[in-house]
């Protein structure tokens, strides 16, 4: 699923143009025109509350399709179409139909990044400062947030060279404990190209905390062990890899995390 977050309408006495505009004649057939199709949720709140809203009943469901085609200058251009699904009418023999409510030109975006607060979301900002949050919910099996990086890579292909794109360097389940919480807690860890390591709640995907790699002084892995530590200022985080058939396999996974963290630190 994707969800769209926009600022409120302009106050009286002023108007604001948008980089999105209705397309009266879109073709929602992905086999003919679109390279990627997902569902979309729409929310018009302009600011996030201290307790993030994760209730699916508050979102209007939408479908999104990314169209990629040559722009006539040897480059690829992308348009993200937003569809509303209409109800079927069995009395008249009509199936579900789709109507396009707006389009988003990817070339007008100035930044694309994984949303910080929600694991399944992508945050986009256009040249007018409009923020658009997409929450993925695909029909494919597996953990939904794993599709975030795929969408970011697709959008990056058709974004302008000036667009700032934050990519996911590494992510996965780790067990974490610290000085206060001495028991291991299962967290989804995500390392991005902005040198931020964020960890999310294992049940609702809401941000629990973050580590700025610019403050990290040391990343140490124990020999032949799934455990490694991160020292950032006066804080120490102890992490352990999960899964794997053998202890040596988990140790290899821990070493992979250490390499990724050190590589991101010294970029």
From TrEMBL:
InterPro entries: PH-like_dom_sf (IPR011993), PH_domain (IPR001849)
Ranges of Low complexity composition bias in the record: 12-22
Pfam families reported in the protein's UniProt record: PH
Region described as Disordered: 1-58
PH domain residues: 167-266
Signal peptide positions (record): none
Protein name, as recorded: PH domain-containing protein
The organism of origin for this protein: Phaeomonas parva
